[in-house]
Design goal:
Layout (H helix, E strand, L loop, with lengths): L11 E9 L5 E10 L4 E5 L6 H8 L7 E6 L8 E4 L11 H11 L4 H14 L15 H13 L5 E5 L7 H18 L2 E5 L3 H7 L2 E6 L4 E7 L14 H22 L1
């Protein structure tokens, strides 16, 4: 008798999610998505397809107009952290104080959580920069601080909305690799929004392809490439196959929309 491992229970399920704004704009229509623990899921698609809206609804920064969003267990059990494209650091605060902010808002003193803060500083490779201010940091270093500020809360799900979109290609590539190594080591669940197909394929266990007018899911593509993924994966035939597949789906949807 062949025994198969049970499929992991979904951490989060979005069922037939709609989002219509007061001006009548249909941001999302009938979006379905299952998120299992430990997945790295990227959402790709054109501007206006609702990628960021999905993240905001998951984060509780708004309510769906229709459909159901269900968490495993109770709502009190899940813990989220959000990383935006803009690091949004306090210019008058050093690295330690910026990372401490979400814990400070929970009433935790710097002294009590200093080892926890140092741990995430080391995790994102910023040791030695603890007392620098944002003006003394490069764009990539600022984003590392933003990621560390999210990680210090020990989130169940990490939501990332185009976190590397404003960075140069070399910095972006390095942070892609660093994020992937951190995800592999720590088994986080990540929902990642990007316009960059190559970035999505390199990072993800699954790529959700979305189309606009109305915002909807048009494909759910498992990226069946093993981890760790070296830089050489970016030039492999397997990588190129996935990128071409996603581009073809988006091109077809665009031509349908124009027609």
């Amino acid at each position: 008798m062949i025994m198969t491992a049970p499929m992991p229970v979904s951490l989060l399920t979005l069922k037939d999610i709609d989002k219509v704004y007061q001006d009548g704009t249909v941001a999302l229509q009938g979006v379905n998505l299952d998120v299992k623990p430990g997945e790295f899921i990227s959402l790709v698609g054109p501007s206006g397809c609702g990628k960021s809206t999905v993240l905001r609804l998951v984060a509780g920064l708004g309510d769906p107009t229709g459909g159901m969003m269900a968490w495993q267990g109770t709502n009190e059990q899940h813990n989220l952290a959000f990383v935006f494209q803009d690091p949004a650091l306090m210019p008058w605060a050093n690295v330690v104080d910026n990372i401490h902010l979400p814990l400070k808002l929970k009433g935790q003193s710097l002294r009590s959580v200093r080892p926890q803060i140092q741990s995430v500083i080391n995790t994102v490779d910023l040791d030695g920069c603890e007392y620098r201010y944002p003006r003394q940091l490069s764009g990539g270093m600022k984003m590392r601080v933003s990621i560390a500020r999210a990680l210090v809360t020990k989130p169940q799900i990490l939501l990332m909305d185009e976190p590397f979109g404003a960075l140069d290609e070399m910095t972006r590539s390095r942070l892609n690799s660093d994020l992937l190594h951190l995800w592999e080591a720590n088994h986080w669940t990540i929902l990642f929004v990007t316009h960059n197909i190559y970035e999505a394929v390199y990072l993800s266990t699954r790529v959700i392809v979305m189309a606009a007018r109305p915002g909807r899911v048009v494909a759910d593509i498992p990226i069946e490439a093993s981890y760790p993924r070296p830089n050489s994966f970016r030039t492999s035939s397997q990588f190129n196959h996935y990128c071409r597949e996603i581009m073809a789906i988006l091109s077809e949807e665009k031509s349908i929309g124009v027609g």
